């Protein structure tokens, strides 16, 4: 959690319309333009991969799909970019319900409620954190201007996530409460991918990844999650060193050989326009098997998105054009 106190949670429907506050960050807003998302890793990131010792620019991993503040319908705010690179990455938990909701619409509603809670109740000028990772594995820009600053790599928007010590720190908020439980496999995978990308763009060393409680008296990011931050640091370091996304199995996460379809779907990455690699190729083959023929290119481009939307409509699920846990689950049934 950031430094905003915690109101009680009242669940709402998928788009979160209404004043329902979430436990640490929350609020409602207009229906988002779901296509406004950025592949954070793309070619621009490769150019700076060498800024972290041991990184491998020639085969640098792709960053995650990050949905902008415009995509989820953020309030208009004015932000200023601080010159220079941040030197630390701080991990938070929202202290919100460990929901089973994994849809993109849920993620967007969460972001809107978070911003409203920070601005209306805590008095912040925007969401306190720079980025948010949901339990469904969706990555979102939290504080307006953070994604553009990350892509530029030479400045950042000062956040409001570590009271009195925000200078030089990027904050990532993880949906959920992790005093005893841990992030979902999809969420942890997305966090590793996002954290490695942030470290790569800014030259932050994996050893400089910390929890909120390491900077001030708080339970955040929860006892169970804080105990796994060494694992996160190692996964980020291995990802940067090898150029291949490296994700450990956290305690309680199902092992690959014993996973059912639901567990496997929850552990697969969220894919969207700009994604590439073996997971995209697998999705394309599954789409074709489901009757929505698309070339097996390994690149998520216009034809793949159209096939995904057609498949989602046929399955009567939210047709947002992104492959998250729900869509993966339906696709796997055709494998």
TrEMBL record:
Q: What is this protein called?
A: N-acetyl-anhydromuramyl-L-alanine amidase AmpD
Q: Name one GO molecular function term.
A: zinc ion binding
Gene3D superfamilies tied to this protein = Peptidoglycan recognition protein-like, PGBD-like superfamily/PGBD
Extract the PANTHER family matched here: PEPTIDOGLYCAN RECOGNITION PROTEIN, PEPTIDOGLYCAN-RECOGNITION PROTEIN LC-RELATED
| Organismal lineage | Bacteria, Bacillati, Actinomycetota, Actinomycetes, Micrococcales
**Record field: transmembrane:** none
What family does the database annotate?
Belongs to the N-acetylmuramoyl-L-alanine amidase 2 family.
Annotated Peptidoglycan recognition protein family domain residues:
64-216
- What is a biological process (GO) this protein takes part in? peptidoglycan catabolic process
| Domain N-acetylmuramoyl-L-alanine amidase as annotated: residue spans | 74-222
InterPro entries, per database record: Amidase/PGRP_sf (IPR036505), Amidase_domain (IPR002502), Peptidoglycan-bd-like (IPR002477), PGBD-like_sf (IPR036365), PGBDSf (IPR036366), PGRP (IPR015510), PGRP_domain_met/bac (IPR006619), TAT_signal (IPR006311)
Please give the SMART domains that the UniProt record associates with this protein: Ami_2, PGRP
């Amino acid at each position: 959690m950031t430094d905003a106190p915690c109101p009680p949670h009242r669940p709402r429907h998928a788009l979160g319309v209404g004043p329902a506050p979430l436990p640490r960050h929350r609020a409602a807003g207009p229906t988002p333009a779901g296509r406004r998302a950025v592949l954070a890793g793309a070619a621009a990131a490769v150019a700076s991969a060498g800024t972290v010792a041991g990184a491998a620019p020639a085969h640098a991993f792709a960053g995650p799909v990050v949905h902008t503040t415009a995509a989820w319908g953020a309030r208009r705010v004015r932000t200023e970019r601080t010159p220079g690179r941040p030197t630390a990455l701080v991990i938070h938990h929202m202290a919100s319900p460990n929901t089973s909701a994994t849809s993109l619409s849920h993620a967007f509603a969460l972001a809107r409620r978070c911003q409203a809670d920070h601005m209306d109740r805590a008095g912040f000028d925007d969401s306190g954190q720079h980025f948010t990772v949901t339990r469904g594995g969706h990555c979102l820009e939290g504080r307006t201007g953070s994604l553009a600053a990350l892509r530029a790599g030479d400045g950042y928007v000062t956040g409001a996530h570590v009271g009195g010590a925000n200078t030089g720190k990027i904050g990532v908020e993880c949906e959920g409460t992790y005093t005893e439980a841990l992030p979902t496999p999809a969420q942890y995978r997305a966090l590793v991918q996002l954290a490695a990308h942030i470290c790569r763009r800014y030259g932050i060393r994996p050893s400089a990844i910390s929890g909120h409680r390491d900077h001030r008296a708080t339970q955040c990011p929860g006892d169970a999650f804080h105990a796994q931050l060494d694992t996160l640091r190692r996964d980020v370091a291995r990802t940067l060193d090898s150029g291949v996304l490296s994700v450990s199995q956290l305690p309680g996460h199902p092992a690959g050989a014993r996973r059912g379809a639901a567990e496997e779907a929850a552990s697969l990455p969220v894919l969207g326009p700009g994604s590439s690699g073996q997971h995209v190729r697998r999705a394309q083959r599954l789409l074709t098997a489901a009757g929505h023929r698309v070339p097996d290119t390994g690149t998520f481009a216009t034809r793949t998105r159209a096939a995904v939307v057609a498949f989602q409509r046929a399955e009567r699920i939210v047709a947002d054009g992104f492959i998250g846990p729900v869509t993966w689950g339906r696709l796997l049934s055709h494998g």
